[in-house]
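Handout, page 2. Input:
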Amino acid sequence: MSNSLTYKYPKIFKLESGKKLRHLEIAYQTFGTLNVNKDNVIWACHALTANADVLDWWKGLFGTKDLFNPEEHFIICANILGSNYGTTNPLSINPTTGQPYYLAFPEFSIRDLAAIHQLLADHLGIKQVKTLIGGSLGGQQALEWSILGKTEIENLILVATNAAHSPWGIAFNESQRLAIATDRTFFANQPNGGLKGLKTARSIALLSYRTYEAYNETQLESVNDKVTDFRASSYQNYQGEKLCKRFNAYSYWYLSKAMDSHNVGRGRKSIVDALKLVKANTLVVGIENDILFPITEQQFLAQHIADAQFSSIKCAYGHDGFLIETDKLTNIIGHFLKESKNKKIIKLQHIA
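Output:
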């Protein structure tokens, strides 16, 4: 059983910056049935331009015949603040003006996204999450939420993510925002503003998501006499146009800034000390040729989260491998969860 729902938060939501949002709405989807003990919750945090339908964008890992299936688990995925798939975002109506926010939308952080997951968990009466999982920006949210410590998280799975967004990652995001800002329509306060800039931004992003090898595998020409109209050129254009049909430049702008804000050490003693606050059984998965979130970032997480396990995936696709290599992820995660279950049984037997 699947449900698409919206939670209207009845209070004013205070952002980490101190700014406030009225009439916060959180769009989310659930799959399966919550059991009597409320201990079969799988909570997935989505990445930059995804949505709450995790069975659609993480096929092979989530689905009726997959590791995380709604027949066994109660799966929750919430659309994040700023995204245009139902949760409050820059195209939502500003209650002060009666018009869409556009660039008057307050900036928010990954920590705000984690706080909103907590709001939804409280609303649903969920006090424990069996497995919290996220990749990329989704992993940043999952990590922050686990550090927040207000919900009991048994298993934490962090894929292709980091403890603080790197100067390299911020530079990629800023280049994309510079591309959006070259489109004058972005400042015209209209729903389709900045789409030409967004198309260019997506093209830049793809170069960080994929690899030299991936483009050679999928976009290499079969003939030697071409001088124009290359497959790689068409691919970049197609992917940019594809995003423009389902997303908006304002959400992209704000979400990229949220990713830049990610640093678990902010307001805490240090990044290392913040990671010590994670209490969940943790698995960190890295992709060996990920140029956006290099594997050293996942190794760092595993080194500083108590008793964390680390696994790596060989994949020609780079960062996008966390969405593509679901068979490999299934094997790694399935083994980890089995070990975690056995440890829990031994611990309970010891207590008894």
